[in-house]
Amino acid sequence: MKNIVKPVACKILEVKRESLHEYTYRVETDIKPEHGQFLQLSIPKIGEAPISVSSFGDGYMDFTIRSVGKVTDEIFEKQAGDTLFLRGAYGKGWPVDQFKDKHMVVITGGTGLAPVKSMLNKFYDEPDFTKSVHLISGFKNEEGIIFKGDLERWKERFDTIYALDKDHKDGWETGFVTEFVSRIPFGDFGDDYAVVVVGPPPMMKFTGFEVLKQGVPEEKIWMSFERKMSCAVGKCGHCRIDEVYVCLDGPVFNYTQAKYLVD
Description:
Elements: E1 8-17, E2 22-28, E3 38-43, E4 47-52, E5 55-57, E6 60-66, H1 70-75, E7 83-90, H2 96-99, E8 103-109, H3 114-125, E9 132-139, H4 148-154, E10 159-164, E11 173-174, E12 193-198, H5 201-213, E13 221-224, E14 240-241, E15 244-245, H6 246-249, E16 252-254, H7 255-258
Pfam family, one: DHODB_Fe-S_bind
Domain FAD-binding FR-type: 5-96
Protein name: Anaerobic sulfite reductase subunit AsrB
């Protein structure tokens, strides 16, 4: 029987700086995750951290990491050729099959773009999979922009709105993502659409409110929660909110349930 909590040593293939505080680590592995799942990345004698998969392909996975604590600080000391330990993949990802032939609205804040990157690339690579894609991505400032090349590429096929909270940048809006939700033509979608929201808890909370104001039913909204996870297998109870275990029941939730989980 496979040991679902045993880490496996994996070679770092590439390290790419995304922004002032984020790096993407490409790791050699044959693990095949679903879009939106996460893995536990660890360093012996230091600890481990749950990190969502930002991209994957034959023989590799990408993890876009922000330095926020002891484990991620230690990971940032690693270079190509070094070793990271992985276990997973865990959790429930995006219901991609349900998104087929729908108009997709994806709204992200900051590093919340990472958990949807692989799915957005699928929509880009398979233009007939969805009817349309509307993407709103916001960042605190220009130094915090990640996936710059992908943002430019997605503009070719998606309807995009990119925004900085307060800074000004050519071709970008200034303001919070909540201010641009009303620009999405929900009335033109009929009943064939879905909305994905990922970002910091306050961003998801208030973006959810704005989407509901546009008349979107709760069951058409999806969110991803990554906070508070620890063991990833529902044993430690660290991520339990009432009767929900985020690591097992999520990290992706429909808004009918997610509305009770937002801080």
